[in-house]
Amino acid sequence: MKKRIIVLLILNMSIILVSLGVISYLSVNASIKRSLESRLALANIIGKYVDYVLESNLKRLYDISLSGKVDFEDGDWEPEKKVLKAAIDYSIFTGRVFLLDRYGNIAISYPHQEDDKVNLLGIPYVSRTLTELKPVISDIYTITPTQRKIIFALVPLRNRNGEIVGAAGGEIDPTNYLLAQIIRTIPTGSDTFIELVDSRGIIIASNDPRRILTCSERYKFLGNLMNEKKATVLNCHRCKESSPDSRREKDMLAFAPLSMAPWGVIVRDPQEAVFLPSVHLREGFVVLSVISIITATLLAIGLSRSIVRPVRSLITATQRIARGNLRDPIEVSTKDEIGTLSQSFDEMRIKLAESLESIQSYSVELESRVAERTKELNRSKEKLATLLRKVFTVEEEERKRIARELHDDTSQSLNAILIALDSIVIHFSEYDPIRKQLLQIREQCMAMLKGVHQMIKDLRPPILDDLGLESAIKWVLEKHIGERGIPFQFRTSGSRERLKDRTRGVLDYSKIELALFRVVQESIINISKHAGARHVAVVAAFGDAGIELSIEDDGKGFDVRKATDTERENTHLGLGLVGMEERVRLLDGKLSIWSEPGKGTRIQVFIPVPT
Question: CB count, 10 Å around CB of 569?
Fold first, then answer.
């Protein structure tokens, strides 16, 4: 026991340490990933905002074409000047806004400058806009000979007829307050740099104003990422440049390209700053592992001393009780939970010894009571079966009596009324109104007579006694299914007469046929009234072992258990499911019902016939 506790504790601590190692590894990686993703998300957010600013200002240039006031041939430049003035107001175009013709010549600009009549086709961005007819935002471009640095924003220009006649453009100062303000409003640490650069590595905006318009060698490789519009996180080694971050050996660089311009947003941090939370997390896991090892060692020593010895004494006592010795007490002197458990075991031993004798005597008495109750239950079942047989016999006899009375009394009375009506009708002319009334009364009497005959057949169809079970089943199908226009199929197999001859002198075969007929009658009436079936099939098989009957329809179906429980609770069962089941059971047969809502119903009956 002692070795097992130590081994289990060592195993448990090994599992804990491995789990801590795996958790620490996953947590550290997750922490690093979250740090990098947060910086990449920051770069994406800044990039999307810059894209929004550029897109909104490109729309102001597109509004020049949409104004419908551009016409280079009318010689009137006042409408164009008003449109240019509206485009430059509240925009980032800090230089000028101008219109170019298809050859790159400046047609008009606002505000007016001395070099307005020059040709700008030599500028790659201008020629690309006029050739590809697409909007273009340039990198930082240096104008010679003034060495003025500007950014061009260009869109195709359409006249009032919708024809492209040139380009509309605006000049953006790279040191624009709005672009710089986007970067500076982001709260960052002293070692974090956020910069907006073009495809040649020139810094357009930065949270360090001293780096604006400088070219960083480390950023030149980002041009391919800008062309591919691919955001990423990279390791960036410190370059030899005189900047505040020159003391850093290695940086983590999160880059997000812009969609409106060949620019990108960079968020750059020292690698040690990015990984610092992960380092602290790893150190915390190491300290926790050391504490866990020390705690497990002390716990193993304490458990081996305080648990093993009392448990051994308790095991010895329980083995003695298991062998049947309930006399000797359990002796454990500790006062902890094990001592309490030992005391409980000893109290249980005393009560067990006291109750053992009473249990043995009670078991003998219980066996005799069970035997007596079983006999009483069997007698009750026999009485119930006898009573049910009498009930069904009385029911059939009552059906016969009612059928005879209807035939001998009611039917004869109706026939007499019909004869009397016929004798009266002949005394009136064909057009006499009284004759028509008498004929109507005669038709009603005929309908009553047919109804009485139908009731007589339902109560006790003579076809069952005269022609047998098959003809009676076919009659029920034709009467209740065929007359409703529902197709049905009735098949038989085996020989009824052969089975009847084999059972002659052994049992009353007519009782079996009567029970099967009532089952079929009840099932067919239920199908015709409630099932909504499109087809009905009945199969009767007369075999050597007995009669098997199957009734199947493709109607609505029902919940068998719910329907059976409802009928058992009802006091007027009639010939429902429970009545069918009891009739079959009295003949030692078996009735099975399969049905689900919407899936039709199948009833199968088997009654054994001894020979």
Answer: 8
CA 519 to CA 531: how far, in whole Å? 16
Distance CA 138, CA 154 (A): 9
Which tokens belong to 435? 């004759």
pLDDT confidence band for 307 (50 / 70 / 90): low
Amino acid at 236: C
Model confidence pLDDT, tens digit, residues 177-196: 777 787 888 877 777 888 89
Q: What is the pLDDT of residues 72-81, one digit of tens each?
A: 888 888 888 9
DSSP for 480-531 reads HTGGGT--EEEEEEE-HHHHHHHTTTTS-HHHHHHHHHHHHHHHHHHIIIII
- The backbone torsions φ and ψ at residue 313, rounded to the nearest 5 degrees and listed phi first, read -65, -40
For residues 99 and 109, is the Cβ–Cβ distance under 8 A? yes
Residue 139 CB-density burial (10 A; 0-12 exposed, 13-18 middle, 19+ buried): buried
* Residue 422 vs residues 318, 427, 435, 438, 482: alpha-carbon distances, Å: 104, 9, 10, 9, 34
What would the DSSP string read from start to end of 376-432?
Answer: HHHHHHHHHHHHHHHHHHHHHHHHHHHHHHIIIIIHHHHHHHHHHHHHHHTTS-TT-
**How far is it, in rounded angstroms, from Cα 400 to Cα 394?**
10
CB 509 within 8 A of CB 503: yes
Strand order in the sheet with 488-494: 488-494, 536-542, 546-553, 601-608, 590-595
Q: Indicate the helix (H) or strand (E) that contains 167.
A: strand 164-172
